[in-house]
Design brief:
With about 290 residues, the protein is α+β, with helices and mostly antiparallel strands. Helices cover about 50% and strands about 15% of the residues. It has an eight-stranded antiparallel sheet with strand order 1-6-7-8-2-3-4-5, with helices on both faces.
Length: about 290
């Protein structure tokens, strides 16, 4: 009888140990659920964290959080390469996030760069998701459909990056509001310009800036060319409408299509009947498709 009791106790202990081991080995994300109710956006995933704007956070601190904690990504659509990628270097610029990736340690090594523009970021829902099954040990993910998925082993790190991305998103939305306000104010300025029987003449300083801008543009130094054109319109915002047209093209060369549209709209407000007005409007249509693909 004592043998039966002993065997029963051993079996109970073994069952308990098995359950405990299973619980300890299973990934848990309950500690990350602080700002979101579990829900499903993608099949097989739960939303486990909705980011928040943290007091005292700055643009520099947000950039640092992203650059220092981003280690692995998936391209989306993930048709090449068909396996997770390691982030070699992440640069958070004022208008975009650039992630250089590699297939290492898988050989032959391949590398590339994926870009997450701020205008795409501002239109995205930022959440941390947890993959219920599979996916290795990097099951916390921040997914941007059709572009890239950021992958993390640690849920708390994923939350920090999500908070930083939300801060950048918030800053970009404020810039969008500022651009809309500037364009609305310029509408009245442009109307006064169009009503003038004698148009204003460029000053010598403004001409100097424009000549230098054209020189930089020929050298394909687009950033410097943009600086000179901006200086020209600071001196006089309406005496050389073509400055806005050229600014639009230069920003398009830099793949900043939001600002390209912004400046081309300025040009059309000043010169709606210009010979190149049709092509200018068509460029806006093209750039808007890049900004927000159908």
């Amino acid at each position: 009888m004592s043998f039966v009791k002993t065997l029963s106790r051993l079996l109970s202990a073994l069952v308990f140990a098995t359950i405990a081991a299973g619980c300890a080995g299973a990934p848990s994300h309950s500690d990350t659920v602080s700002h979101a109710t579990l829900e499903s956006i993608r099949p097989g995933f739960d939303v486990v964290y909705s980011p928040m704007l943290r007091p005292g956070q700055t643009l520099d601190s947000a950039k640092n959080e992203i650059a220092s904690h981003l280690t692995h990504i998936d391209l989306d659509p993930d048709d090449f390469p068909p396996y997770p990628l390691r982030a070699l270097n992440t640069i958070v610029r004022d208008d975009k996030i650039e992630i250089k990736w590699t297939t290492q340690p898988i050989t032959p090594e391949k590398t590339g760069i994926v870009t997450l523009p701020n205008h795409r970021l501002s239109k995205s829902r930022i959440v941390v998701e947890f993959r219920r099954e599979g996916g290795g040990n990097r099951r916390y993910q921040i997914h941007f459909p059709g572009l890239v998925t950021l992958k993390f082993r640690d849920g708390k790190i994923a939350n920090k990056v999500a908070d930083a991305l939300l801060f950048i998103q918030d800053q970009e939305e404020k810039r969008e509001e500022a651009r809309a306000g500037q364009l609305a104010a310029f509408t009245a300025t442009a109307a006064k310009y169009r009503a003038l029987s004698t148009k204003p003449v460029m000053s010598e300083d403004q001409r100097k800036s424009i000549v230098q801008a054209n020189a930089f543009s020929q050298q394909k130094n687009y950033k410097k060319a943009i600086e000179r054109y901006l200086k020209a319109i600071e001196l006089d915002s309406i005496s050389y409408p073509a400055a806005y047209y050229n600014l639009a093209l230069l920003h398009a060369q830099e793949n900043d299509f939001v600002m390209a549209v912004f400046y081309m709209k300025h040009y059309l407000l000043l010169e709606p009947d210009a010979k190149d007005a049709r092509s200018a409007q068509d460029k806006i249509y093209e750039w808007e498709l890049v900004i927000k693909p159908d």
